[in-house]
């Protein structure tokens, strides 16, 4: 069983205007095969034309494209037992 990854760089609050992209980044202590998941409120996010989810090494990035007022709310990132929110 692989050691658990922890969050070493937490999410930061992002302010953006309607029509802009909002970028959230979270850095883990190690690369992991553990399930990592982004949420807007309680809704799990998937990578699609509105949301881009990228993983580069230990850096996990969420890009919300052309945000609207409906996208306003808490963003959270979860891996294992660890959560970061903005």
UniProtKB/TrEMBL annotation:
Pfam families: I-set. Keywords: Cytoplasm, Disulfide bond, Phosphoprotein. Residues 3-86 form the Ig-like domain. One of its GO terms (cellular component) is cytoplasm. Its main location: cytoplasm. It is found in: Cytoplasm. This is OBSCN protein. It comes from Syrrhaptes paradoxus (Pallas's sandgrouse).
